[in-house]
Amino acid sequence: MKKATRKALSMVLIMITMLTLFGQSAFALTGEQPENISQDILDEMQKTDDHVYDAIAKTQEKAEKEKEKGNKSQEEFEEYLDHLIAKLLEKTERKVDKVIEKAAAEGVKPGKEFIEVEICDRTVDVDPFYAH
Predict the structure, then answer these.
(1) Helix 74-105 crosses helix 39-69 at what angle (to 10 degrees)?
(2) Rounded CA gap, 77 and 108, in Å?
(3) pTM
(4) Cα atoms in the Cβ-side hemisphere of radius 13 Å centred on 129
(5) Residue 113 near residue 127, CB atoms below 8 Å
(6) Are 113 and 128 in contact (CB under 8 A)?
(7) Residue 124 in contact with residue 88, Cβ under 8 Å?
(8) In the Cβ-directed half-sphere of 57, how many Cα atoms lie within 13 Å?
């Protein structure tokens, strides 16, 4: 019973996190922009934001599953969590940087806006972006 309750609570927290993340896109156009921003760039920016949020959700899920298994010592789990977070940050940073370069070539001035994400009781700043 205790395990089922813990599992249900974890799933509810993951769902709330996903709704919060997907409900509000970090992508926004503000300030002065060239009037002829291509739809391809806008689509690619949105697709990249979606990719970042998906990567965050997958990382949270992997961390929760490993925590529930409980087959690692606290130190091993912390190392595993460090590795997961580093991998997430590397992947999202690389993806965002590629799109920023493409958008800058078209005159859009994208920037990074870090959001706080909870991964197994750790707060991590991840960077979907916005155009300004």
Answers:
(1) 180
(2) 42
(3) 0.67
(4) 25
(5) yes
(6) yes
(7) yes
(8) 18
- Nearest CA to 37 out of 109, 128, 97, 108 is that of 108
Of 114, 107, 119, give the one whose Cα is nearest residue 36. Answer: 107
For the beta carbon of residue 48, count every other beta carbon within 10 angstroms.
23
With DSSP H G I counted as helix, E B as strand and the rest as coil, what are the percentages for the chain, rounded to 5? Answer: 65, 15, 25
96, 59 Cβ separation under 8 angstroms? no
- Give residue-wise pLDDT tens across range 42-74: 888 888 888 888 999 999 999 998 888 888 888
| Number of residues assigned to the chain | 132
Q: Please check whether residue 96 is in contact with residue 48, taking contact to mean a CB–CB distance below 8 angstroms.
A: yes
φ/ψ of residue 119, rounded to 5:
-130, 105
> Degrees (nearest 5) of the Cα angle 84, 96, 54?
50
Phi-psi region of 115 (alpha: psi -120 to 50; beta: other; left: phi over 0): beta
Cα 111 to its chain centre, rounded Å, is 16
